[in-house]
Amino acid sequence: MRICGVILSGGKSSRMGTTKAFLELDGKPAITHIADELKKTSQHVMVITNEPADYQFLGLELYRDRYTNMGPLAGIETAIYHIDADVYIFSACDMPYIHHDVYQHLMRSLNYNDAVIPIYNDRMHPLSGIYTKNVLPQIQMLLDNDQRKIRALFDHITVNYVSDYNGIPKHVLDKHFFNMNNPDQYEMAKQF
Protein backbone atom coordinates (compact mmCIF):
# COMPACT_ATOMS: atom_id res chain seq x y z
CA MET A 1 0.00 0.00 0.00
CA ARG A 2 1.39 3.39 -1.02
CA ILE A 3 1.03 5.94 1.79
CA CYS A 4 1.60 9.67 1.38
CA GLY A 5 1.95 12.03 4.32
CA VAL A 6 0.64 15.53 3.68
CA ILE A 7 1.21 18.73 5.66
CA LEU A 8 -1.38 21.41 5.00
CA SER A 9 0.29 24.78 5.40
CA GLY A 10 -1.93 27.17 3.51
CA GLY A 11 -3.66 29.15 6.25
CA LYS A 12 -3.22 32.85 6.87
CA SER A 13 -2.10 32.47 10.54
CA SER A 14 -4.04 35.64 11.34
CA ARG A 15 -4.64 34.77 15.01
CA MET A 16 -1.00 33.88 15.54
CA GLY A 17 0.36 36.92 13.73
CA THR A 18 3.18 34.90 12.13
CA THR A 19 3.46 31.69 10.11
CA LYS A 20 2.64 28.87 12.53
CA ALA A 21 4.67 26.28 10.63
CA PHE A 22 7.91 28.12 11.42
CA LEU A 23 7.39 28.63 15.15
CA GLU A 24 10.30 27.06 16.96
CA LEU A 25 9.83 24.16 19.38
CA ASP A 26 12.82 22.34 20.86
CA GLY A 27 15.15 24.16 18.48
CA LYS A 28 13.31 23.22 15.27
CA PRO A 29 10.42 24.72 13.30
CA ALA A 30 7.06 23.09 14.14
CA ILE A 31 6.72 21.83 10.57
CA THR A 32 9.98 19.88 10.89
CA HIS A 33 8.55 17.95 13.86
CA ILE A 34 5.45 17.17 11.79
CA ALA A 35 7.44 16.03 8.74
CA ASP A 36 9.68 13.80 10.87
CA GLU A 37 6.66 12.11 12.44
CA LEU A 38 4.85 11.61 9.11
CA LYS A 39 7.98 9.95 7.69
CA LYS A 40 7.47 7.16 10.26
CA THR A 41 4.22 6.10 8.59
CA SER A 42 4.58 7.27 4.97
CA GLN A 43 6.87 6.48 2.08
CA HIS A 44 6.37 10.00 0.77
CA VAL A 45 5.83 13.32 2.58
CA MET A 46 4.75 16.54 0.87
CA VAL A 47 3.67 20.06 1.82
CA ILE A 48 0.76 22.01 0.38
CA THR A 49 1.64 25.69 0.55
CA ASN A 50 1.07 28.78 -1.52
CA GLU A 51 4.50 30.08 -0.47
CA PRO A 52 6.76 27.23 -1.66
CA ALA A 53 9.97 29.29 -1.54
CA ASP A 54 9.61 29.58 2.25
CA TYR A 55 9.54 25.78 2.66
CA GLN A 56 12.51 24.76 0.49
CA PHE A 57 14.60 24.02 3.59
CA LEU A 58 12.49 20.92 4.28
CA GLY A 59 13.69 19.13 1.15
CA LEU A 60 10.14 17.87 0.50
CA GLU A 61 7.88 18.14 -2.53
CA LEU A 62 5.89 21.37 -2.39
CA TYR A 63 2.64 22.12 -4.21
CA ARG A 64 0.41 25.18 -4.47
CA ASP A 65 -3.37 24.84 -4.19
CA ARG A 66 -4.91 24.09 -7.56
CA TYR A 67 -8.13 25.79 -6.40
CA THR A 68 -7.04 29.12 -4.93
CA ASN A 69 -8.55 30.64 -1.80
CA MET A 70 -10.75 27.60 -1.21
CA GLY A 71 -9.41 26.50 2.18
CA PRO A 72 -8.15 23.14 3.43
CA LEU A 73 -10.43 21.10 1.17
CA ALA A 74 -8.45 22.52 -1.77
CA GLY A 75 -5.24 21.43 -0.04
CA ILE A 76 -6.54 17.89 0.24
CA GLU A 77 -7.52 17.98 -3.45
CA THR A 78 -4.07 19.21 -4.48
CA ALA A 79 -2.25 16.45 -2.59
CA ILE A 80 -4.38 13.66 -4.01
CA TYR A 81 -4.22 15.14 -7.51
CA HIS A 82 -0.41 15.39 -7.60
CA ILE A 83 0.78 12.26 -5.79
CA ASP A 84 -0.30 8.78 -6.79
CA ALA A 85 -0.86 6.89 -3.54
CA ASP A 86 -3.53 4.63 -2.09
CA VAL A 87 -3.86 6.48 1.21
CA TYR A 88 -3.08 10.04 2.31
CA ILE A 89 -2.35 10.88 5.95
CA PHE A 90 -2.96 14.55 6.74
CA SER A 91 -1.72 16.97 9.35
CA ALA A 92 -2.26 20.68 9.67
CA CYS A 93 0.94 22.71 10.08
CA ASP A 94 -0.12 23.88 13.55
CA MET A 95 -0.21 20.37 15.09
CA PRO A 96 3.46 19.98 16.10
CA TYR A 97 3.01 16.94 18.32
CA ILE A 98 1.28 14.48 16.01
CA HIS A 99 2.15 10.87 16.79
CA HIS A 100 2.59 7.97 14.40
CA ASP A 101 0.80 5.55 16.76
CA VAL A 102 -2.42 7.54 16.30
CA TYR A 103 -2.09 7.44 12.51
CA GLN A 104 -1.32 3.72 12.52
CA HIS A 105 -4.44 3.13 14.61
CA LEU A 106 -6.49 5.19 12.15
CA MET A 107 -4.98 3.26 9.23
CA ARG A 108 -6.07 -0.02 10.81
CA SER A 109 -9.58 1.44 11.05
CA LEU A 110 -9.83 2.27 7.34
CA ASN A 111 -11.17 -1.12 6.20
CA TYR A 112 -13.05 -0.45 2.95
CA ASN A 113 -14.03 3.13 3.73
CA ASP A 114 -13.00 6.19 1.74
CA ALA A 115 -11.79 8.03 4.84
CA VAL A 116 -11.12 7.72 8.57
CA ILE A 117 -11.88 10.80 10.62
CA PRO A 118 -10.74 10.97 14.24
CA ILE A 119 -13.00 12.30 16.95
CA TYR A 120 -11.33 13.32 20.19
CA ASN A 121 -12.81 15.18 23.17
CA ASP A 122 -16.09 15.39 21.24
CA ARG A 123 -14.42 17.25 18.36
CA MET A 124 -14.05 16.02 14.81
CA HIS A 125 -10.53 16.44 13.40
CA PRO A 126 -10.80 16.22 9.59
CA LEU A 127 -7.37 17.81 9.08
CA SER A 128 -5.70 14.93 10.87
CA GLY A 129 -7.71 12.33 9.04
CA ILE A 130 -6.86 9.69 6.49
CA TYR A 131 -8.31 9.76 2.99
CA THR A 132 -8.06 7.39 0.04
CA LYS A 133 -7.57 8.46 -3.56
CA ASN A 134 -11.25 7.53 -4.20
CA VAL A 135 -12.37 10.86 -2.71
CA LEU A 136 -10.77 13.03 -5.42
CA PRO A 137 -13.78 13.29 -7.80
CA GLN A 138 -16.13 14.16 -4.92
CA ILE A 139 -13.78 16.88 -3.65
CA GLN A 140 -13.46 18.34 -7.14
CA MET A 141 -17.24 18.34 -7.54
CA LEU A 142 -17.63 20.28 -4.28
CA LEU A 143 -14.92 22.80 -5.12
CA ASP A 144 -16.29 23.28 -8.65
CA ASN A 145 -19.59 24.21 -6.98
CA ASP A 146 -17.88 26.63 -4.56
CA GLN A 147 -18.49 24.34 -1.58
CA ARG A 148 -15.46 24.55 0.70
CA LYS A 149 -16.51 22.77 3.87
CA ILE A 150 -14.67 19.51 4.46
CA ARG A 151 -17.70 18.14 6.30
CA ALA A 152 -19.75 18.49 3.11
CA LEU A 153 -17.47 15.84 1.61
CA PHE A 154 -18.57 13.31 4.21
CA ASP A 155 -22.08 13.28 2.73
CA HIS A 156 -20.63 11.88 -0.51
CA ILE A 157 -18.13 9.26 0.72
CA THR A 158 -17.95 6.40 3.22
CA VAL A 159 -16.35 7.48 6.47
CA ASN A 160 -15.31 5.59 9.57
CA TYR A 161 -15.43 8.00 12.52
CA VAL A 162 -12.97 6.80 15.17
CA SER A 163 -13.27 7.82 18.81
CA ASP A 164 -11.79 4.72 20.50
CA TYR A 165 -8.00 4.70 20.57
CA ASN A 166 -7.37 1.25 22.06
CA GLY A 167 -4.83 1.93 24.75
CA ILE A 168 -2.95 4.86 23.21
CA PRO A 169 -2.09 6.92 26.31
CA LYS A 170 -4.17 10.05 26.96
CA HIS A 171 -1.10 12.31 27.03
CA VAL A 172 -0.13 11.11 23.52
CA LEU A 173 -3.65 11.80 22.26
CA ASP A 174 -3.83 15.21 23.96
CA LYS A 175 -0.60 16.23 22.26
CA HIS A 176 -1.51 14.69 18.88
CA PHE A 177 -4.74 16.69 18.62
CA PHE A 178 -3.28 19.92 20.02
CA ASN A 179 -3.43 22.97 17.71
CA MET A 180 -1.40 26.16 18.05
CA ASN A 181 -3.77 28.84 16.77
CA ASN A 182 -2.73 31.82 18.88
CA PRO A 183 0.24 33.02 20.95
CA ASP A 184 -1.15 31.54 24.20
CA GLN A 185 -1.37 28.10 22.60
CA TYR A 186 2.17 28.47 21.29
CA GLU A 187 3.31 29.16 24.85
CA MET A 188 1.44 26.02 25.96
CA ALA A 189 3.16 24.00 23.22
CA LYS A 190 6.56 25.04 24.55
CA GLN A 191 5.65 23.45 27.92
CA PHE A 192 4.86 20.01 26.47
Structure description:
39% of the residues are buried. Strand 7 (115-120) and strand 8 form a beta hairpin. Strands 1, 4, 5, 6, 7, 8, 9 and 10 form an eight-stranded mixed sheet that branches. Strands 2-3 form a two-stranded antiparallel ribbon. Helix 2 (72-82) packs across helix 4 (136-144). It has helices at residues 30-38, 72-82, 100-108, 136-144, 150-153, 170-176, 183-191; strands spanning 3-8, 24-25, 28-29, 44-48, 61-63, 87-92, 115-120, 123-124, 130-132, 159-162. The protein is of the alpha/beta class. The protein contains seven helices and ten strands. The protein has a single domain (3-191), classed as Alpha-Beta Complex (Spore Coat Polysaccharide Biosynthesis Protein SpsA, Chain A), CATH 3.90.550.10. The protein is globular and about 40 Å long.
Short description:
With 192 residues, the chain is an alpha/beta fold. The protein is 30% helix and 20% strand.
Q: What separation lies between the terminal Cα atoms?
A: 34 Å
Strand content: 15-25%
CATH class descriptor name: Alpha Beta
H-E string: EEEHEEHEHEEEHHEHH
Show unreliable segments: none
Q: Total domains, how many?
A: 1
- Overall pLDDT level: 94
Might you state the CATH topology name?
A: Spore Coat Polysaccharide Biosynthesis Protein SpsA, Chain A
Assign the CATH superfamily. Answer: Spore Coat Polysaccharide Biosynthesis Protein SpsA, Chain A
How many helix segments? 7
